[in-house]
Amino acid sequence: MKPILVHLHLYYKDMLKNMLAYIDNISNYDYDLYVTMVEEDENTIKQIKEFNNRANIIKVSNRGFDVWPFICVLQKVNLDDYSYIIKLHTKRDMLPCLR
Fold first, then answer.
1. Above pLDDT 90, what percent of the chain?
2. CB 4 within 8 A of CB 86
């Protein structure tokens, strides 16, 4: 099996720990981790690199919600090199009144 492409768009940096816990569920598989962020933050980058020192971190402009960052990652990889793609992004509940 080819590696898995994992893309995490980390807009809300305070959710990093939760997101890394999700990614840790595939630790028995070979995967390449790409993390996109709209703001570079040394502490966040350090935490990502401690989790996976081969992580690719890309600063992206704040547009296109999570779609533009995904397109930026897709431009940097060859999809033929991967068996699967996992796309994750942080999200906040913006409509709590609908519950």
1. 85
2. yes
Residue 80 has pLDDT above 70, yes or no: yes
Tokens, residue 1: 């099996």
Residue 96, number of CB atoms within 10 A of its CB = 7
Distance CA 38, CA 63 (A): 9
CA 11/CA 73 separation, integer angstroms: 15
Please name which of 52, 84, 69 lies closest in space to residue 11, comparing C-alpha atoms: 69
CB 48 within 8 A of CB 24: no
Phi, psi of 35 (to 5 degrees): -120, 125
Q: What digits encode the pLDDT tens for the residues 22-68?
A: 999 999 999 999 999 999 899 999 999 999 999 999 999 988 888 99
